[in-house]
Structures are given as C-alpha cells and as structure tokens.
Amino acid sequence: MDTNLSIKQLETFRTVMRSGSVSVAARTLCRTQPAVSAMLVSLENELGFKLFERNKGRLIPKPEAFFLLEETDAILERLTRAAQLMAEVKNLSRGNLRVACMPAASLYFMPHVIADFVKDRPEVNVSMMMRSSMIVHDWVAAQQYDIGYAEMPKERESINVEPIRLKGVCAVHRDHPLAGKAVITPADLDNVPLATLFAQHPTSELVRFLFEEQGARYHPRFELQNYISGFEFVEHQLCCSICDPMSAASYTISKSGQGAVVFRPFAPDVIFEHAIITPSHKPLSRLAQAFVDHIYAGLKNAGLEEYLAPGSSTGF
Predict the structure, then answer these.
(1) Start and end of every HTH lysR-type domain (predicted)?
(2) 146 contacts 280 by C-beta, under 8 angstroms
(3) What is the per-residue pLDDT for 2?
C-alpha cells in the first residue's frame, strides 16, 4: 500500500514527541488540541499502525514512534536545509558557473569581471578555462560550459550568440610621437614595425589590405598568437600594434592604468567580432544570466562601450 505522509503530519508528530503533550504542542503550533489530535490519527491511519497508547487522555509513545522521530528529524532538517539553499540560489549567492574564454579576454579582463561578481558571493564557485575561440564554440554547444566569450562563431542551432563588435585601436608607447594623435591611420604607420596576429588570421589580412589601399607600407615585424604578447614589444619601443580593445582593456587592467602603452582610435575601422555565447538547448540559470549581465557591465567599466560598432548586442 502506498503511503503519503505530509510535512504537516511530520511537524505535528515531532512537536508532540518533543513536548510530551498534545496541549503544549497545540500552543507551540498555534492550533487547537482537537486539530493536533486529528493530525496524529491521520498519520497513524496513513502508516497503518498505532504510534501511541492512549491512557486516560495521555499519549504514551510506542517504540515505533521513537524510530519515526529519528527519521522525521532527518527529513525535516533536510527540507529546512533545502529551503535555505534555494533561498540562496534565488538571491544569486550560491551556485556554480562554468566559463570558457578566448585568450584575449581570459588573461586579465574575464578574471577581473569574475572577481568583481563573486566578491560578495562566497558560495559561488567558478570554473574558467582558456581555449581558442573554435574550442569555446564547441564546448558551449556541447553544454559543457554555461557561458563562452570568443570570436564570432558561424551560425549553428546549438548556441545563442550575442554579438560584441568592437572597433580596433592602435597601441603605441606613451613617448612615441603618434601618442599625441587623436586618430592613427595607415599613413601614420607607413613602414612602422608592427606586432600582429599570424599572417593567415582574417584581421591581419584586412589590415594588410587597408595599408595597400592607402599606399602605406605594411611592416609586420612580430607575428603572434595574441595581441597581449605584443604589448611587451610596444613597451620596449620596438613596434606599434593595431589590436582589439579587449586586449587593450586587459593590458590596462593588468597595469592598473599605469602602463607604458597607450591606445588611440584607428581609422579606417578594423572591426573585431566577438560574442557572448550560451547553449541554445539549455536554459541559463539565474546565476548564469546575472553573470552575463555582469560581463556587459565589465565591458562598460573597461571603457569598451565607446568602441562598439553597429550590430552589437542590445545588452548594452
């Protein structure tokens, strides 16, 4: 026979057992004595056996009652703990986040955003992995990670994409003559040594085309996997670099705004297409959605909003 015990039955039973009296239990529970007695009878009927001996208006617990009390304590304590945990989840103060990130954002920017997000949330745990953008796309599509930040992926049904289109900037040493210019162009960088991404990267190909179009000599002295590595060469006044604002923001954060490299707008526009990526077949948790919103806040705080190009997400 199926048994359907209710929380009220168990709470009433535990209060009676602890108080030793129906009348005291009734006062504790703010109920009438007949209501408490009826609840005990319904519990016994549900179980199919008696928990108490009734003797001249007194309840005498049987051995089975003490066994049930142990189980009741465990059940109600577990329910109380579950309610507390879900309240923490509701308040975004407990949970797990899994974030996959491309190198340009993962070295400084994303850790900075994560640190700010969890500083008042000691029960939030975060796993952040740095991989190439293509791997980030695949991980999020496979629901291995809740959120990804990467270069814009190709359209696929398994992911949601929030575009972040950023206008490129030029990194120069603060003592370089070009540091005084409001906007830097290919003509300003004619035959100037540059730190660039590897030659086959679409951005490198675009920059090369812009230089050729304007009759300027393109001089990629250092070819790298990411722009952040190139800032070391810029600091040593060995080159300049046309880079994405995310890498620039990461450098600024890492140097607390005191670095030797400064960043100026570059024209014509070199657009870096990034994206916040989430699984399309798995709803975001409240915590994950709050973190996505925090990424946008981090982009604004890092000054990247001024470099946004048309077509960026409305999350700003």
Answers:
(1) 5-62
(2) no
(3) 60
